[in-house]
């Protein structure tokens, strides 16, 4: 799936709706599963997104999550720009919801610069600087990006 098609699919499923933070996370997860064709139905996507978190990592991610900069440098299987765009958008939403305006501004500036490695490095710095709850949410976005096929 092209970057434009994936982004359009996610946007079509998310736009025009009001979500709480948890609802947005769940809606994005379901949308990502359907748009990436990992799930064929809303029910399958809901089931996949409802997996319990593991105690060891606090994540449902089926792979070890790499720092985004390392992942960008070593990735040869995925379209990096196809992944960074929606992940950065969701980082931005989560940061704004959490009142982390300075971090949101830094990410916006990096995104405007267009260098994918710089964007990934900023994302990693942000995760290191925020509290555990927000960090877990951001790592969930990393997982979605790093497992996208």
Topology (elements, then pairings):
Blueprint (H helix, E strand, L loop, with lengths): L2 H12 L6 H15 L6 H8 L18 H7 L5 H18 L3 H13 L2 H14 L2 H15 L3
Helix pairs in contact: 1-2, 1-5, 2-3, 4-7, 5-6, 5-7, 5-8, 6-7, 7-8
Top keywords for this entry?
mainly alpha; 68% helix; 149 residues
Largest sheet entry: none
Give the helix level as a range of percent: 55-70%
Strand percentage lies at under 5%
Structural class based on helices, strands and sheet pairing: mainly alpha
Name the average pLDDT.
84
> What is Rg?
14 Å
Number of DSSP E strands = 0
**Count of folded domains:** 1
Oligomer: single chain
Sequence stretches where pLDDT stays below 50 over 5 or more residues: 53-58
| Cα-to-Cα separation, first versus last residue | 9 Å
Q: Categorize the overall geometry.
A: globular
Encode the helix/strand succession as letters.
HHHHHHHH
Number of helices: 8
Please explain how this structure is put together:
The chain is built from 8 helices and no strands. It is 68% helix and 0% strand. The chain has one domain. With 149 residues, it is mainly α. The longest helix has 18 residues. The N and C termini lie close together (9 Å).
